[in-house]
Write a structure and sequence with these properties.
The chain has about 220 residues and is mainly β. The chain contains no helices and 16 strands. The two termini are about 30 Å apart.
């Protein structure tokens, strides 16, 4: 395997497109030189502000009802869920419930109430996304204790050069003995994160390239 280490480069943010992603808009921004990575930063994602409302800068653009269970993409975040609606067979994952009880509104009901749903959840495909889907959770089966994941517990990564990558499951593709694990806005990632050092790394295949290199990881989200 070719062992070239990706160094920070000039990058333009692009729209992330994955099969299970929620619909969202995206705009490009001027290119900027990325700072060298000193340490990989871990973020435990929480999209809520006070009183269970979406945090500043986030807005709800769609609402559905669903039954939820532990997240497959973010198995170690106790607030993360995988939700199934009656309208589609595609699961919404990750979704996030608030840390405490909130007063919620059932769909189509103008009066706030706590009787028709267990809680609410906010779903998105990219931690930088501003448009969310709100789920009215009819039944929450995701409150049982969680063990450490036997696989990579992170649902989203940002590489040193700004490339953004979302975890995927169920695609049987291997390169140089490593399974496909993330789709990126440029290329794909393979295998597990190497967390041995202060800067984590993962195998990356650039678009149009048949070989893997080793990419530094700036930020991971649980």
């Amino acid at each position: 395997m070719r062992q070239k280490l990706r160094r920070p480069a000039i990058a333009v943010m692009a729209c992330l497109a994955v099969a299970a992603a929620l619909a969202t808009g995206c705009t490009t921004s001027p290119a900027a030189t990325a700072e060298p990575v000193q340490r990989t930063h871990t973020v435990v994602f929480d999209p809520y502000g006070e009183h269970g409302d979406p945090a500043a800068g986030l807005r709800v653009t769609d609402e559905v009802s669903a039954r939820c269970e532990n997240s497959l993409l973010s198995p170690e975040n106790p607030l993360a869920r995988r939700c199934f609606t009656n309208e589609t067979t595609v699961a919404l994952d990750p979704c996030f419930v608030p840390a405490g009880p909130v007063l919620v509104r059932a769909p189509g009901d103008g009066d706030a109430q706590l009787t028709s749903v267990d809680t609410v959840a906010l779903c998105l495909a990219d931690p930088a996304q501003s448009e969310l889907t709100r789920v009215y959770v009819l039944h929450d089966n995701g409150e049982q204790p969680r063990d450490s994941a036997a696989f990579d517990p992170h649902w989203f990564l940002e590489l040193a050069d700004g490339t953004r990558c979302a975890k995927i499951f169920g695609v049987r593709e291997t390169v140089e003995g490593h399974h496909l694990s993330y789709r990126c806005d440029e290329g794909q990632l393979y295998g597990m994160l190497d967390e041995a050092g202060t800067v984590w790394t993962i195998h990356h295949r650039a678009e149009g390239d048949d070989e893997l290199d080793v990419a530094e990881v700036r930020t991971v989200w649980k």
